[in-house]
Each structure stands twice: as structure tokens, then as C-alpha cells.
Amino acid sequence: MNPIFESQLLSNRRHFFGKAATGLGIPALIHLLNNNASASEDRILEAAQAIAPKAKRVVYLFQNGAPSHLELFDHKPQLTKLHGEKVPDSYMEGKRFSTMSAAADKRRLLAPVEPFKQHGESGATVSAFMPHTAKITDDLCFIKSMHTQQVNHAPAINFFLSGFQLPSRPTVGSWLSYGLGSMNENLPTFVVMTSVSKGTSCGQIFYDSYWSSGFLPSRHQGVKLRAGGNPVLYLNNPTGVSPQLRRQMLDGIADLNQRKYDTVGDPEIQTRISQYEMAYRMQTSVPELTDISGESKSTLDLYGPHVHEPGSFARNCLLTRRLLERGTRYVQLMHAGWDQHNSLTTELYNQCRDTDQPSAGLVRDLKQRGLLDETLVIWGGEFGRTPFLQGSLDNRARWGRDHHPYTFTIWMAGGGVKPGITYGQSDDIGFNVAKNPVHVHDFQATLLHLLGINHEKLTYRFQGRHYRLTDVEGHVVKPILA
Hints:
Elements: H1 3-10, H2 13-48, E1 57-64, H3 69-72, H4 77-81, H5 89-92, E2 116-119, E3 124-127, H6 131-134, E4 140-147, H7 153-162, H8 172-180, E5 190-196, E6 223-224, H9 243-264, H10 267-290, H11 297-303, H12 313-325, E7 330-336, H13 347-368, E8 375-380, E9 384-385, E10 403-404, E11 408-413, E12 421-423, E13 425-426, E14 433-435, E15 438-439, H14 440-450, E16 460-462, E17 465-467
Helix pairs in contact: 9-10, 11-13, 12-13
């Protein structure tokens, strides 16, 4: 006889009731643990929200591939004077670059491709690559001393968005969804849109980890809006399924899921219920959101001619404003193509043409609608570009710059940030931070602070440890706060 079957047959009354009691106790134990976890989470969120918020919403205009700070915002006349000369060895000691720098032409310094001018009352320097951004400099706060420790794209982007170089942690939007919750039950709290310039040779990929909820419940995951067809996959009812039938199906599924949750206490079951309900409501809210036919010509003109092209950065910027005014808390626009290893004199013009006017138009649109004061707008990439040339000085059509984590520029606007200022400074050739360094974790701490969150208190317990966006580092950059 099978020994397992024999053991079951020989089980006596005492063994039977002992096992039954244990089994009955498991749901009770799970319920108790879930209640304790919920109470602990509530205490964490209450402690984290101890700062008066300056902003309610965030839009992150993330420029995948790393824009060249030396071509756009960080004017270094010394580079023009030293054009073609070799970088002094003292600058290179102890520095780590991508493997592509090994092919650089003796690391010769490269002058900016386009001239710089001062703009606005603030006198901020912006190059001819960005004429529209130049017109709103008095609304912007430039941080010219950003630095990171990652030298390759995906790890650097993960680091900026999740505080960790590997794709396993919750991203900024997920942390905000967890910490602050939703402002509109009919739209996601965290929305992502992606775009890429036409004809670019940059092969940047949009990995799902860039809007992942990591170990947070998956209801905090970013929802990606697509350009063509259905903006959200599987949102529409199949042929022959009426809204009434869909409602009955969802009610039945929700009842089954609730029964399962009452038994096992898995929080992902509650997430599934809420996601089904959100999808049902989005069947109405998303088509209304993406219909821009009611926008005035003057508004469309703010974003430039590409606003009429679905999937363009310009269209995504307009949809961002529509999302923000409808209550979405965090919108992450990701535009790829900035990886100018050999295309500073060609493709960089396309990148700026596709993103300059829409970015400035979004700031202007938010401002004229009274939304900018409570909306934090961020523009920047994962690192900067080297002051030295990648390529040959004799081949101007193939000039480029390599990845550079040691100093670069981002800008911010609205949401409690001082307008019309420049914070931090790079050295005379834009190689290292010279004044007021801002690390990625400092940037993240400041972002959370502006939304009323103490970055050291917003934590989530996972695998025996309390994690946070800023890991064990980060300081609020107080001089930029309004």
C-alpha cells in the first residue's frame, strides 16, 4: 500500500481534529497579520506626510539618452578657447567612463556646436538649440551640479527613477501613488507616455522597469498610454459584450475575488479588484481625455506643429496637461534619442526641434491656467555628455560626446521651486562639479519634500527591511525652495 494513503487511513480522531484546528487557525492568523500590516502602513504614511506640500502634481519630462549639458544650458567659454586640445590628465584620474570613450580621439576638448546667449531677467544662458526654452527662463530653476554614479543608460535611468540601478525597486510615480493616493477615481494616479524622434539612430529602449511598482502592491504601477489604436490595451469591450454584461461580469468576478481574499488575505487580490473597476471607469474617461478636438488653436500652437501627430512628444505634452487638470498625480513622459555619440551636428537638432517648443509650451499652458504653482515640472536625462570629443576633429559631421556622470544640468519649474535661478556650478570645462553638488538622491528627496513627504519616513517593509526611494542617503536642496 502507498505509505501516504496508509498514514491517512491510520490517522486517529485526535490527529484529525488537531490538523483541522491548525487549518482553521491559518485564515485567522492571516487576517490578524494583514490587520497589523495595514495599521503599520497607515502609521508610516501618516509620519511621512508631515510637511506642508507645495505641489500636488508632478510631470517628469525624462529625456532618455542624456542630453548634452554643454550644448544646451551650461555655457563654458573655456571649451571654445581650448577646442582641440587634450583633456589634462588631472581631470581623468580616477574617473570611469563607458567603453566607447576608449575610441575617443585622444580625448580632445570640443567647443559647443551652437552659440549661447543670456535670456530673461535672470540672465540664464541657453544655447540656440533651445529658443523656446530660452523664452521661459524666468520660470525655470536650473540645477547645473547634478551628478550620479552610473555610466550606462539603463542603470542610470533606473537609478534616477527608483533610487537603485537594478530593475527591482518602485519608481517615483509608484512611491507617490503609495504615499499620497489618487485624486481621481476615473484615471490612474501614475501615467506614462513614450516617444522618440523620427530618424534617430539612438537605440534607447523603454523598459517596463522605468514605471514599475517593484515590491509595492501592483495597483501603484504606472499605466502606459499608447499612441495608436486603443490608448490602453484590452480596455474596450469585445464585440458582442455590452456595458451591462461587462458590469455583471465584473460584479461576479469581484465577488469571487473578495471571497478568495477573505480566505488567504493576499493584497494583490484587492489590487486585481480595484484594477478591474478602474478599467471599467476608464472606458469612458480615456476617450474623453485623448479627444483634443475641443482645444483652441492658440493652445495647440503653444505645443508646436507636431501636436497633431499621435505619439509625438508634443501631443504627449498636451495630453499631460489634460491629465493633470483631471487629477492624475504623476505623469512621466519619456522621449528617446539623445544619445549623441556621433550626431551632435545632425540629430541633436532634431531632438531639440521635437522637444523644445512642447516643453516650454507645457510650462506656459500650466501657468496661464493657474496650475503651475501646484505642479512640479522636471526636465532632464540620466547623465550628461563629456567635454571631450568622441570621434575625429576632422570629421565634423560625426562629432559626438560620450556619457558623463560627473556633472550635468536639469531644470525644474513650478511646484514650490524658486523661479529664475541657477543653482550649482560645474568647473571651467564642464567636467566636474565646482559648487553645490546635487546627487540623484538629493534630487529625489527634494521632489518628495515639495509634495509634502519626508523622504526618510516614506518606507515600505519588504523581505525584512524598510526600503525608501532615497535608500539611506539624500538631503533636501533647500536653497531652491520657494
